[in-house]
Amino acid sequence: MDRVLPRVFVTPQSATWLPRLLHTLRLWQQRAQTRRQLAQLDARQLADAGISASERLEELEKPFWR
User: Fold this and answer.
1) Residue 34, in any domain of the structure
2) What per-residue confidence (pLDDT) applies to 1?
C-alpha cells in the first residue's frame, strides 16, 4: 500500500492566520471538554485508566490554553 503525502502550498503569512486561529480554538475546546470528562470519573475509572487522584487534580488545575 502506497502512502500519499499531501501537497504543501506556500501561502503568504497573512493568509494563514485564520486557519491557525480556528485550529487553536478547537484545541482549547477539546482540552476543556476532556478535562470536564476527567472530572466526572470515579476512583475505579481513574484506576482503570492508570491515573492517580493527584495526577487528575494536577490536570484539572491547568487552564484550557495549556
Assistant:
1) yes
2) 56
